[in-house]
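Aim 2 progress update. The chain analyzed this quarter is reproduced below.
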Amino acid sequence: MPVALPLFPLNTVLFPGMSLPLHVFEPRYRRLITEVVDQAAETADEPERNPRRFGVVWIELGHEVTGESGQRSGGTDPSGRREDAATALPRISATGCTALVRDLRTYEDGRYDLVVEGGTRFRIDDVSQVDTSSPQGYANASVSLLAEPMGPDAEEHAERVRELFDTYCQRLAAIGMTPEHMRELPKDPIALSYTVAATVVLDQPEKQRMLEAEDAATRLAVLARFLRRENRIVAAPTLHNLPAGPFLDHGVSYN
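Predicted structure tokens:
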């Protein structure tokens, strides 16, 4: 059954079960958060009707953040159709993750600090056009929520990933680069696949690939290959090719 979701494009990938802090200052996304929170308050006695959630999608190409000058850049919707500059969105991935608002702080000038938790993966079926000449306009989408199948031999893949990830963390610790967000690994293969995907040093296209995997077994198998590669890199005498970003920031995304 299709679900309507407001979309919040970001330059990062959100995984189910993972937390992400956001500082929201652009007018269109301040409006999005305000409306999400207000609608949730109106149905407080029936939270299943209107949970405090929106859709996070990764920006493949372009920038959603715009200056107050009104300048906008063109883009392509998930179906590949080219848009006019007046209704353009950045090129976004067709697969995203719902974001549930878990913590919220409102500033007098309308900005928000919030923490969201990844909920359910979704596939975009249709995206509304947006008049980007208006700073208040944000995209809404009709989406299909995706199931979370385990896949064949998921437990075996999970055990392999646990072993490789333990080696990965030990080697990083040896050079003083233990992942900040490390926590005890979940036993469930599905949750494990997302926890490791969110923690290991991967660029955003690789993380998006993890989000789009058809089942946990596939995700874990690909993660095992990534971890073998990263373990070789970390074990090398020099680390010129190791991305430092995940260890230098604190995971805060800005709209």
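The longest helix spans residues 154-174. Residues 112 and 161 are 37 Å apart (CA to CA). These observations will guide the mutagenesis experiments scheduled for the next reporting period.
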